[in-house]
Structures are given as structure tokens and as C-alpha cells.
Amino acid sequence: MSLLDVRNLRKSYGALKVTDDLNLSVDEGELHAIIGPNGAGKSTLIAQLSGQAGSDGGSVRFDGTDMMGMPMHKRVRAGMSRSFQITSILPGFTALENVAVAAQAGQGSSFRFLAPVADEAALNDAALAALARVGIDDRAFVKAGSLSHGEKRQLELAIALATRPRLLLLDEPLAGTSGAEADRLVEVMRSLKSELTLVLIEHDMDAVFSLADRISVLVYGRIIATGSPDQIRSDPKVRAAYLGEETEDA
Amino acid sequence: MRLIPTRAWAATLLFAAFAALPLIAAALDDAYLVVIATRILAYAIAALALDLILGYGGMVSFGHAAYLGIGAYSVAILSRAGITDLSLHILGAIAGAAIFAVITGAISLRTKGIYFIMITLAFAQMAYFFFVSLSAYGGDDGVTLSTRSTLFGQPVLEDDTALYYTAFAILLGLYLTAVAVTRSRFGRVLTGARENPVRMQAIGFSPFRYQLTAFVISGCMTSIAGVMLANQASFVSPAYMDWHRSGELVVMVVFGGIGNLLGAVAGATIALLLEEWLAVLTEHWPLLFGLILVLVVLYSRDGLTGFFRRRL
């Protein structure tokens, strides 16, 4: 059954239709990749789904609940988290604090004024576990602003995981990473497939085709095809619109 | 990490000096020193309160003098109504400040940056002109208090040293509370919302609720400073709410060092001492003070505490 159901979603910036009557259905437990050329509206779609940006029309249902008009922080609490294409962290906090505060959002009230939060083992343990999962637990006490670009990408994913989402929207998690860091992130995503539902936007086609259960192709704000990696690879519309010849050997 | 033991050590020194001050004043036979120092303690309370939202919450309130005035007028108004106890004056101040802070904060927090600064200033000016037109309490001229607040029904605060130690106890208590708040769950969310509000929303927090709560706490704390100022001067007037005074509070925080609480206390202390000493030297003392402020800000982005930290 579908966990996320998007119907006729629309958004325009002036005359430009960035999201144009978009329909998308994401099944519980799948990794659903969304690919498309630059400017297709992928990041806008993530912003609309997460509640960061408003929509002009259509509907977004998550687990049967209408999400339209619900602000971002409530969607997160409902179980729908996102990561950012451009790393969005708390630079003055340590890596551990960045993740611990995300865990804090889902664990009890934050209107507690006197007890030191640094002593809360439940938060620190959850944070360390998330950092270990993405492979930067040895950097837990480094200020997030001082981490390398690749480490920040790993932290970005750890923060999103610490909110314990049922659905995770990943906006180009591999952007700017290379080598071991990228491999690590791909492996983390692969391991997440058995635990939660993922929507993945990514330009790295090797990663997309090896990870995705289904792929949707977004062009000019519309989904032009949805199917298994094999179906997408051989879809003539997709090849014409986007993939070109390079996927012959993908 | 290193700052924290350093701060605890520096705070111990500073508060020990405050605790010993009346003894020093007695030894020097300088009763005026205690009077100045009480004023310093009151302003330190206000600066501490401002640093909580300015330093940790990123909210530059340019209208915090309004809360000094609310605190001062709650002494005048309640005293005239026959309510003289300090604890009730403080309660009244907190209630008034909370109402003012909830309303003005909820509106101000819809804006950011320079607009937040201007809108908090505008609300403080509205409060200022409200009290200017309050003829029952002397309007522009203010009103002299015939007695200070009482403590458990006794007029003990008529003694300058007793008033001093009361202000000292309040400052110490509020300082320790503020330190705890900044290290709490709440403090972490407040600081996170300053660092990156979108990130905080993306992990499930609505920054507004936390910012407004901090704004109200800060306003309430500042109103207690107003209660102490009114008692120290035995006089209440709209001058407490003057926008210059809001600016001075910001200067104290910046001068001492933003975002570590102790800096605000030190900033208030040094700024007011300099004012006293420089005023003896020349009537153009603000010029000298301005020069010192420029040098401190230029050479240490963390104010006075920055120098202190580097040396240790």
C-alpha cells in the first residue's frame, strides 16, 4: 500500500510551472528514486512534500493523513523527514549535539529549563548510534562547522535519521562527496531500505540504479515515467527526454 | 569546552568581589560606593536578561528599557495601593512584564534583523509615552517613593547595605538560573534556532514558541531589575524606559561579551564604573567611553570576556 500519495500537485513561480499536475505514489518499504535533468523541479518537489514550500494546489497524503497546510515541523513529527541538498547543519554545535537535538525533538518536551541536556544519556546514545551508522562517530565532539564537506554530508544524513522517520526524503545526499564517503553513504542507504521508506533524489546514476526499487522520471515538473530500474532504462520516452546514451552501459 | 571551567572560576571571583564590596566600602568609609554598586547590580540583572535572548537567541531587543520601567512602576503603583512587600512588587513586575512581552514578542518575532530591532524599539516607545501621560504618577516628572519595599512586613531595605545584599542575592540566583537554562533542553533549542532556524524546523521544532518563551523570560527578569532600581533611587519616572537606556543595555552586553552571561554582568559593572570615574575626569566622558568601547570591540570580538579568556 502506498505510504505517500501525491495527487495533482502544482506550484508556479510566476509563469513558470515548477510542479505541473504531479502524481506520485510511494509504497511502504520501497526506495523510490526521482531523477530528472537540472531544473526539472526535484528540489522544489522535496520542499513541497516536506512543507518548507507551499503548494498552489493538489494533495499530499502521508499514511492516509492530509499533509497540505501542515507546517514542516509537524510533518517531521508525523514521521516525514528530509535532508537538504545544500548542507544545513548547526555549525556552532558539535556533531553530537547536532544529532542529539534532532533526537530530542522526538523524545519528550523541550520546555525543560533547568536539567542539563548534555547529561541526557538517551539523547547522547541515540546521537552516537546515528553518527556511527554514517561513519563519523569518531568526530562526535568536533564543531560541525569544522567538519570536511563529506563529513557534513554524513552528518546531514545522521541528523535526519535521528528524527526516526517512517519516510525519509533525501535530496542529493551524495552531492559533493567522493570515494569512500560516497560509498559509505550508499551502503547506509542500502541498509536503511529494510527499515524505512525512502524517496531519493540523486544525480549519481550508478547509485540510483543500484539502490532503487522504483524510479520516477521528472521532467519540467511532471512525472513522465515510473517503473523498475530496468523499465526506466529501456523506456524510450525517458531516453529521449533525459538519460541519453550514457545509460546503455549503466 | 574550555570556556566553562574558566567561566565558573571568573564568576566566582566576580561574585566574591560583589559579596565583599560593602565591607570594603565600610573600611574606606565610603557609603556612596554601596549606592553605586546597588545600581550596578540592578543593571547587571537587566544585561544578563538581555544576553539570554541576544546572545543565545539571536534576538536583538532594542526595547528592554520598557521592562525596567514596568518593574519600577509596579513598585510605585502597588505601594500607593498599600502593597509594600518586595516579593509582591516583584510578582507584580513579572506579571506586567509577562503580559507586555507576550503581546509585543508575538508581534516582533514575525520580523527579523533590523526590523525586529526597530519594532521592539517602537513598542518600548509606546510604553514610554503611556507612562509619560500617566498624570496620576507624575507623568513626565515621575513620582518619588516615600518608602522602599518592605521585606516580610519589615522596613529592612531602608538600610542601603540590606538593599545591596538583596540585589546581590537576586543577581546571583538569576545568574545561576540563566546558566542552567542555557544548558537545558530549552536552551539547546533556543541556540539551535539562532544558528539555523530552517534546520530546527526540519527536525521537528517550531522556533517561534521557544523564542517567544525566552523573550518573555528575559522581559520578566529585566522587570526585577526595574524593581531594584526604583528602590535604590526611591524614585520612578518614564526615564527608565527611555530608548537611550535600551541602547545602554545593548552596549553593556556587547562590551562585556555576547552570549556567555557572565560577560553581561561584567559589562554592566565596568560600563557603570567607567561612567562614574570618567564623569569625574571630564564632562565629555561619553567620548572617552565610546573610544574604549570601540577598542574593546575591535580587539576582542567577545568583549571583555574575550580578553580574559585569551589570557588564561
From TrEMBL, chain A:
SMART domains assigned to the protein according to its UniProt record, in alphabetical order: AAA
Domain ABC transporter as annotated: residue spans: 4-245
Presence of keyword ATP-binding: yes
Any one GO molecular function term: ATP binding
SUPFAM superfamilies to which the protein is assigned, alphabetical: P-loop containing nucleoside triphosphate hydrolases
GO cellular component, one term: plasma membrane
Keywords, in A-Z order: ATP-binding, Nucleotide-binding, Transport
Domain of life: Bacteria
Presence of the UniProt keyword ATP-binding in the record: yes
Organism: Paracoccus homiensis
Pfam family, one: BCA_ABC_TP_C
Name the UniProt record assigns to this protein: Amino acid/amide ABC transporter ATP-binding protein 1, HAAT family
UniProtKB/TrEMBL annotation, chain B:
Molecular function per GO: branched-chain amino acid transmembrane transporter activity
Transmembrane intervals: 36-54, 66-83, 89-107, 114-137, 162-181, 208-229, 249-273, 285-301
Topology in the lipid bilayer: Multi-pass membrane protein
GO cellular component, one term: plasma membrane
Keywords carried by this UniProt record: Cell membrane, Membrane, Transmembrane, Transmembrane helix
Pfam families for this protein: BPD_transp_2
Statement: the UniProt record of this protein carries the keyword DNA-binding: no
Superkingdom in the source lineage: Bacteria
UniProt subcellular location: Cell membrane
Protein name: Amino acid/amide ABC transporter membrane protein 2, HAAT family
Organism name: Paracoccus homiensis
